[in-house]
Specification:
It contains 15 helices and seven strands. By secondary structure, the chain is of the alpha/beta class. The protein has a single domain, classed as P-loop containing nucleotide triphosphate hydrolases (Rossmann fold, 3-Layer(aba) Sandwich), CATH 3.40.50. Strands 2-3-1-4-5 form a five-stranded parallel sheet. Strands 6-7 form a two-stranded parallel sheet.
């Protein structure tokens, strides 16, 4: 039945109503997407009473809970293996995480009727695999949290999923933080703490592990909130990252967008954002305290995941390594049939990637993959 419906809707179904109305008013929705916008708004309105109840009567109690000050942040450019690493670490019974359900309905977590309705609704409608890379989807699977603060305050890079024409504006405002006030950053910090508290309560675990590639450009601000945080940076060949990102967005955005970019605009944006966020990461990396950072290669994680994850446990002195390895080993057996997409690249695109992202290829010792198919 899930494959028959095969529906994805913008995560705005869980936004504050006032925020989604402002976004719709300030952005041009193409007529072909009017029904999608209407359906998103309708579900948002139906969900509104549950959100209000949870914010008024449940969130204040959760806010009093103390968050451990050493969460683990998985960072790295999109399409660099962050999802695979997050899924692995989440097999450890002490590692709490945001679920896909929380990522869409963060204020309908602990009202039993609301969760019953909307979790079943989500289970029915989302496809069993993610558009663009065939990663399995389920409301309880680990997910990144970028949307959650942006559901309450106007601060979220992923607004571009709905309004891709503003991707560069959103990057400048929400990743580079140009023009972002101290008041907004304080509000974002507060929202971030709340989402972690709710994630730990929901999963019944004690240590938070985050996967959010957008945070690759926000290291100084994360350290202000969590001075003892640990960071895992995973990197991948920039050529493969470009190809994979282009493929992923071309498959995902048509199901979520309310306006659209041309293919050429999307290509330019992918290359520009790669260059910008990786340069920002390189600049900010020295701020991370010694012993709180580890860097791994996607290729090594793919070849021997348990060895690479074991390095993380040893580097950060995380207890329970042996038991966690057993859980991860079982997970890898269950998911071993996963197959990556095969991609191609045009010669002129490859040249542009090499010219713009060559600094990253040099830093992490990458070259053009031998097995890559290059077309005219």
């Amino acid at each position: 039945m899930r494959e028959s419906f095969n529906v994805l809707l913008p995560p705005a179904v869980g936004f504050r109503l006032s925020l989604i109305l402002k976004l719709l008013a300030r952005n041009r929705v193409k007529p072909k997407y009017y029904f999608r916008a209407f359906l998103t708004l309708l579900i948002n309105i139906i969900n509104a009473p549950f959100r209000l109840y949870e914010r008024l009567f449940i969130n204040p109690r959760i806010a009093r809970v103390r968050v451990p000050d050493d969460p683990i942040f998985i960072i790295g450019h999109w399409r660099s293996g962050t999802t695979h690493l997050h899924n692995l670490l989440s097999q450890d019974k002490q590692m709490g995480y945001v679920t896909t359900y929380q990522g869409v309905f963060p204020d309908t977590m602990f009202t039993w009727l609301g969760k019953l309705i909307f979790k079943n609704f989500m289970s029915l409608l989302i496809p069993s695999t993610r558009k663009g890379d065939n990663v399995k989807l389920d409301p309880e699977f680990p997910q990144e949290e970028e949307f959650i603060p942006g559901m309450h305050i106007p601060f979220c890079f992923y607004y571009y999923w709905m309004f891709p024409r503003k991707i560069m504006e959103y990057y400048d405002r929400y990743v580079r933080l140009n023009g972002t006030s101290d008041k907004m950053m304080k509000a974002w910090s507060s929202e971030y703490l709340m989402l972690i508290k709710k994630a730990l309560k929901n999963t019944g675990r004690t240590k938070y592990v985050s996967k959010n590639p957008t945070n690759t450009g926000r290291i100084p601000h994360l350290l202000k909130i969590f001075p003892h945080a640990k960071f895992i940076h995973i990197h991948r060949n920039p050529v493969e990252v470009y190809i994979s990102t282009k493929h992923f967005l071309s498959k995902l955005l048509p199901f979520l967008q309310l306006n659209e970019l041309t293919v050429e605009e999307m290509k330019e944006n992918i290359i520009y954002i790669y260059k910008e966020i990786m340069a920002q990461f390189i600049h900010d990396k020295p701020l991370i305290p010694k012993g709180h950072f580890i860097e791994i290669r996607f290729e090594d994680l793919e070849a021997d995941p348990l060895r690479e994850v074991g390095k993380i446990y040893d580097s950060f002195n995380i207890p329970g390594k042996e038991q966690a390895m057993e859980e991860m080993r079982s997970y890898l057996i269950e998911t071993k049939e996963y197959q990556r997409n095969k991609h191609f690249i045009r010669k002129e695109e490859l040249q542009k990637v090499l010219e713009t992202c060559g600094f990253a290829m040099e830093r992490w010792h990458y070259k053009v993959p031998d097995e890559l198919t290059i077309t005219d």
